[in-house]
Amino acid sequence: xxxxxxxxxxxxxxxxxxxxxxxxxxxxxxxxxxxxxxxxxxxxxxxxxxxxxxxxxxxxxxxxxxxxxxxxxxxxxxxxxxxxxxxxxxxxxxxxxxxxxxxxxxxxxxxxxxxxxxxxxxxxxxxxxxxxxxxxxxxxxxxxxxxxxxxxxxxxxxxxxxxxxxxxxxxxxxxxxxxxxxxxxxxxxxxxxxxxxxxxxxxxxxxxxxxxxxxxxxxxxxxxxxxxxxxxxxxxxxxxxxxxxxxxxxxxxxxxxxxxxxxxxxxxxxxxxxxxxxxxxxxxxxxxxxxxxxxxxxxxxxxxx
Amino acid sequence: xxxxxxxxxxxxxxxxxxxxxxxxxxxxxxxxxxxxxxxxxxxxxxxxxxxxxxxxxxxxxxxxxxxxxxxxxxxxxxxxxxxxxxxxxxxxxxxxxxxxxx
Lengths: 305, 102
Prior knowledge:
The complex is a heterodimer. By secondary structure, chain A is of the alpha/beta class. Chain A has 6 helices and 17 strands. In chain A, strands 1, 2, 3, 4, 5, 6 and 17 form a 7-stranded mixed sheet that branches. In chain A, strand 10, helix 5 and strand 11 form a beta-alpha-beta unit. In chain A, helix 1 (16-27) packs parallel to helix 6. Chain A is elongated. By secondary structure, chain B is an alpha/beta fold. Chain B has a 5-stranded mixed sheet. At the A-B interface, helix 3 of A face helix 2 of B.
């Protein structure tokens, strides 16, 4: 039998939006709990170097998020990590959130579950396919990798892979052009350790004894196939909203992003949303923190009335 | 919660453990942090299992000797030896199943 615990506010998601909301809520003396399915920090944890965060000229993403977490802990906001939400009811005045550990009854909720990397479709069963260069890049020192994707993330992560000592990178982009900033492309290709192929898709992989040997790239227009030797594959083809949990609760756009107003109110009374999960144009650490601030202040106003 | 191991005491600690889990990790690795917190949660319902951690950047040779390739790698220790290993992410339910079948 799980304990039932009451709070004023539950924040789902512990990235920069959720943690900022927690700070503001705690400062307003709102009894708050933060629930996170993984660890606090969100996608920022996977960013090697953050260069545009005010007050920090250059900072490791995980270190930056650890500092924010320290602030939350200092404010005594309870945080449940590695938290599996088994049931959600956002309809009434009292919202119910059941996790694998407890049942929470709260009066307001902030949804800040962010986004996740898009995985290869169809999935390929291979231990050498990765989505995080910080996590998995080091093992490929002196080896060859294929990077799938052609946006800013793909190029920034590729530059980081070269810093780790990867010998050679082949970039595969399904569109006819790379969409990354020209400076990022120049930075990567000027190393002489990376080549780019556009208008091609990853069509297959070949493994021997559980080890990747080569990938098969298919030219989209001609159907011609090409074999590229590789020890590992890194995939950076964008991100998708983590909104599956509440898809039937609040209004979403066709892509699955929450439709929130300027005060971060969703279509459900007492439910707010913040950060990358919201439909918006720009997704930065600072914009997520801004959303988190507004969501917490709106929640406070809602709870006080 | 975790006993920190080094190249100097890792093998002896394994040889002295009936039931345990060792994580090979590195600093500033988000998946490693995730797995450490998962193990903390897992251990709440399995207090009889000892938890160990090995910094693979400080002890790369020991990590290789154990058969590890990339962090985070979980090693299951039963009856004084490593009986299984798995790299990557797991949730507590997957960890429970992995430990049980090892």
